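pinning this so it doesn't scroll away 📌
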Amino acid sequence: MSRLLPTNWIKRLGLDLAPFRPRLLDDLKGYTRGRFMTDLGAGLTVGIVALPLAMAFAIASGVKPEAGLFTAIIAGFLISALGGSSVQIGGPAGAFIVIVYGIVEHYGVANLLISTVLAGMLLFVLGLFRLGVLVRYIPVSIVIGFTNGIAVLIALSQFKDLLGLSPQHMPADFVGQLRTIGAHAHQFNPFALGLGVLTVFSLWAWPRVFSPGRLPKVMLEARSFRLASRMPGPMVVLLVLTVVAALLQLPVATIGSRFGGIPQALPQLAWPDFSWEGVRNLFIPTITIALLGAIESLLCARVADNLTDLRRHNPNQELMAQGVANMVAPFFGGIPATGTIARTVTNVRAGATSPVAGMVHALALLLIVLVAAPLAVHVPLPVLSGILLFVAWNMGEWREFIKLRHFNYTYRTILIGTFLLTVIFDLTVAVEVGLVLACVFFIYRMSTLFRIESLAMVDPQIAVFKLYGVLFFGAVGKVEDLAEQVPAEARVVVLEAHRLISIDTSGLEALLQLRRALARKDIPLVLCEVNEQPLGLIHRAHHDETLGPANVVTDLPSALLRARQLLPAAGHSMGSQQ
C-alpha cells in the first residue's frame, strides 16, 4: 500500500513541493494575552482603515461596494490565517482596479469570478512548486513602470465621480475614458468637485496636524488629541464629509442613489455561471490576475519584512494562501484579492505581532457590515473618489521619473516603456514587453562582457588567445570571427579559458565550428585551464574526442608544450598540401 501513497509518487517524480504550513501555526506557539491585546488593537485599526478603501476599490472596479467588503472579509481572513507572513493584510487592492474594470467591461461579472477562481488555482500551484522566488527576478524598472501606470489609470477612473459626471457607459481604456470625460464635461457638478478636493486635502493634512511643532504641546498632550491622532484619516474624513453632505443635502451621487445600499447580512454562497467555452476565452484575464496578485503580494510582504523584526515571510506559503483566498472569495461575490501595502503598513505601525491581527481586521469589517450597513447609503461617491485619488498618489513612485537621468539608457527605456504601455494598452502587454526588453538588454550587456584577448608569444607559430566572461548564444559571434583573426604565420591556436566562467550549448557549438574552420587551414586547436562548468558540458556532450583528449590540458605551459608537439605535424600537413 505504501507504493500508492501520493508522497511516494511525488518522490519518484523528483518533485520538491513546498509544505503547506501557515505562519499562524508557528506564531501561536507561546502566544500570550498581552500579544493578543496588541493584535486586537492593530486588527481593529486596520479594519476601520479597510472599510472605505474596500468600498472605493469595488466601485472603481465596476462592481457593487459590497463585493469589496466581502472580499476584504473572506479573502482577508484566509490570507492572514493561511499565509506565510506574520503581518500581511490581504483584500481588494488598488492595483486591481484597472484590471477588474477591464474584465467586467469585456467579459462580465460572472466571468470575472471564474477568472479569479482560476487565477487562485494558478497561484496555489505556483506556491506549491516553490515558484514564489521567481517574482523576485522581475526587474525593479518594470515594477515601478507598471505601478506608476496603474496609479495614473486609477486617478483617471475617478474623474467621473470627482466631477459629478454621469455617462451611461465608461470605457476601460485610457483614450476612451478621456473622450467620455470630455464628452460629458457639460454635466460638471461643482459640489462633487468640492467634496473630492476637500477629501484629498483632508487626507493630506490629517497626519500633519498632529506632528510635533504644528500644535501647542499642551493640546498634543491632551487625551482627546492623543485619541484623535490614533484615528485613521480615511475613516475620519469619510464620516465627517458624509455627515456634512447629508446635513447640507448636497446634490451629489451616493452609494444609496447608485447602488441602493449595502446588504446588512452575511455574504451568501453562490455558484457563478460556468462553461468551458468561457474558460478558454479567459486565459489572458486569468494570467493577468495571477501575475499581478503574485507580484503585489510578495512585494508587500517584502516591505513588511523591512519594517519589523519578525521572521521573514515564506513566499511559497504566501502564494498558496493567496490562491486559496482567490478560489473561495468569488463564491461569495468577492473580487480578486492580494496583499495590500497601505493596510499592511498600518498593521505593522499599530504593533501587530502575528496573523491574528489580520484575522481580527476581517472580523471587525464583518461586524461593521452587520451593524452599520444601512448608514452606507449616505456615503458620497466623490468622497470615495477623493480617497482613491489620494491612494493613487501615494501608490506611485513619482520621484523615480526625476531620478531617471542618473540611470543608464536600458533602465530608462524599460521603466518608461512599461509605464506608457500600462497606461495606453494594459498591464499584461506592459509586463510582457518589459520582460522582453529586459532580456534583450541583459543579453546585449552580457555579450559585451565576453571578450577575447590576444597574448604576445615568443613563438610566432603559436597564437594564444584568452577568453573572458560567459560564452553563450549572445556572444558566439566573437568566437566565430576568431578564425579570421589568426595571424598568417600561426600554425597552432591555443585558447586559455581560465577566466571563462560559463558556456552554453551555443557557445560549445561555436568552439566546435572554430575548430572546424581552423582544421580547414590545418591549424590545430588546444584548450587549457578550462573551468569546471565548461569542461563538464564538453564531457556531457561527448565532444572530448572531437576536440582531442590530448588537446584539452590543465595549464598554459602544458598547452604551449602540446602546441610545440603539434607544430611539425601542422607544418608537414601544410607542406604536403602545397
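📌 and the second one:
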Amino acid sequence: MIAYRNIILIIAAVALALIAKLFFIQVLDDSYGITAANNAFRYEVQYPARGIIYDRRGEALVENITAYDIMVAPREIRNIDTAELCDIFRISHSEIRNILKEVRRNRNYSSAPFLKQVKPENFAVFQERAYRYPGFYPVVRTLRAYPRNIGGNVLGYIQEVDTATIRRNPYYKPGDYAGKSGMEEFYEDVLRGRKGVNIYLRDSRNRVVESYGEGRYDTAAVPGIDVVSSIDADLQEYAQLLMQNKLGSAVAIEPATGEVLALVSSPTFDPAELSGENRNRNYVMLQRNPSKPLFNRAIMSWQNPPGSVFKVVNGLIGLKEGVLTPETCYSCAGGYPYGRGVGCHGHFSPTNLKQAIMVSCNAYFCYVFRNLIDSKKYINLDSALMAWRSNVQGFGFARKLGVDLPGEQMGTLPLPRNYDRIHGKSQWKSLSIISLSIGQGEVGATTLQLANMCATIANRGFYYTPHIVKSIGKSGKIDEKYYEKQYCGVDPNLFAPVVEGMSMAVNSGGTAWRVRLPDIEMCGKTGTAQNPHGENHSVFVCFAPKDEPKIAVAVYVENAGYGASYAAPIAALMVEKYLKGTISRTDLEQNMLAIDLVNKPIRRVAPKPARSEVETDTEHANGGQHDAI
C-alpha cells in the first residue's frame, strides 16, 4: 500500500513539473515564440568589424572601410523598376534578371542577398529611393583596406564562405566572409568578432512594422580583436621591391625572439585586389597566373635543395659527433676524387673547417659526411643515416616548424628505405649518397627553414618557433610555444669556428666578399643549388651583427645561378635596411632593382663574379648527381 502511494506521488510530481514548464514557456517566457512563429519575424544580421592587423611598430597593415550589402525579403517583393535598379547600381539588365531569378529561388528564406559590397556612392543613391522598394534593406559590412601594397602572402584575404566551410562550422551562414590564407585565415577566430542580430515583426502582409519586443531580443555585434604582427612594414616593403621581377622568396627572423620580420614570396599580389567589387575577377586572374602569386613560396616550396648553405649543418654535426675538429684539414684538387667524384671550384688547399666554409669547398664536406656515415659507432648504414637525419632535424628540417601561417610544408630528408628502393636492399653506401654532404640529392627545404637554421647558428644552438604574431588584443598574450627555446642538440661551444667561417666568407675575401657591409660584421654562407630543370638556384643565408645578432635572413632566387650574384646582395641589403634604416651599398641596390630575371635572359644581366666567388654544387661532367637522382 505504501509503495502504491509513493508511485502516485511521483507521477503527480512529474505532472506538476511539466505543467509548470509549459506555463513558463507559453505565458512567462515569450522568447520561445520567436522560434515557433518564425515566419512572423525578419532577422537582420549585424556584422562586426574585423580586427585590425598592425606591424611591429603599430602601423596599420590591414584596416576596415564601410561597405553595404543590399538584402531582400523575397516574399515582400512587389513591382520592381528594374531599369532604375540598373541605373542606381550601375549594372546591366541581364545581371538584374539573374539576381532576381536567384532571389525567387530562395523565396522560402526570410532574406537573401541582392547585391554585395555596394560602393558608398551607389548606396547613397539607393537610400534616397529605398521607399520604392519594399523588402529591400541594407546590411553594413566592413571591407579590408590596405594602406600599403605589402605582405599579400602574409596577411591573406577574406572570401565568402563555401558550403564545406558552413558544414564544418555552424557559426557561418551563406553570404558570410572568412579569412582565406595568411594571418586572416590562421587568426580567423580572433579577427572575425561575433555577429549580432536585430529582430523585426511583420504584419499579415509580410511588411515590417516594428522592432520585436522593443529590441529586448536583439544582440549587438562584437568587434574582432586587433592583432599586432611581428612584420616590419618598411623591411617587408623593401624586400618585396628587391625581389620584384624574380621568382623566389626571402625571410628575415629576429633570432632573439623567433619573430618574423619579413616574409616575401615573389611574385606576390596586392591584397587590395581581393577586396571590393572586382575581387572575384581578380582572384580568377591570380589563380590562372602561371607564376602562381597566391602560392607562398617561403613556406610551401618544400622540394628546393638548399645547396651549399647546408654545409654549415654538416660541419656542426661533424663537430658534435667527433669526426672532425676545427683544425682538421682536407685537400681539394678540383673536387672530391672518390667514386663518381664531386667537382669543386678553384681555391687554396688544404683548408680547415673555417676556411672550408669561407671558400665553400665541396671536397671538405664530402670527407666530413663520409666520416659521419661510415663511423664505426653505428652497426650499419641504416642506423648511421638515421642518426645523421635526426641531427639534421634538430635544426628544423624535414618537419613543420609551426609558424602561424596556413600551408607550411615539411621539406624532405631521405630514409634508408628510399635508397633500398633505388639501389636494392643494402646495395648502397656513403659514396652513393655523397650529394647530401653539400645540400643536394634528397634534401628539400623551405626558405623559412633556411632562415630558422641561420637563426639557430646566430643563437649558437637554439631557436624559437618562427611566428608572425607579436601580440593579440589588450592582453597581448600569444601562444606559449613561441616563448620556448628549441635546442638543436649541438653544444654552444662548438659554434665558434662555423660562425667565424661565415664571417670570413663575407669579410675576409670569401665567396660573399662583394656584399660586405660597412660598420656591420655580417656572417653569411652562399649556395648555388643545382636545378635539373634549368638554371641553378641562387641561395644565401646570413645574420648580423656577429655578436648579439639582431636579424637572420635567407634568400632563395630560383633559376638565377650563383648565390653570390643575386641572393647574397638582396639579403645584405635587407640586413643594412633593418639595422641602419638607410642604404650605403647603393651599387648593390641599383643592380638588384634593375635586374629582371623573369622577362630577360639571366646571362645578359648577371654580374660576373670573381673566381673566389664561384662555388658550385655540381659534380664532374662524367658523374652528375649520385645514382639516386
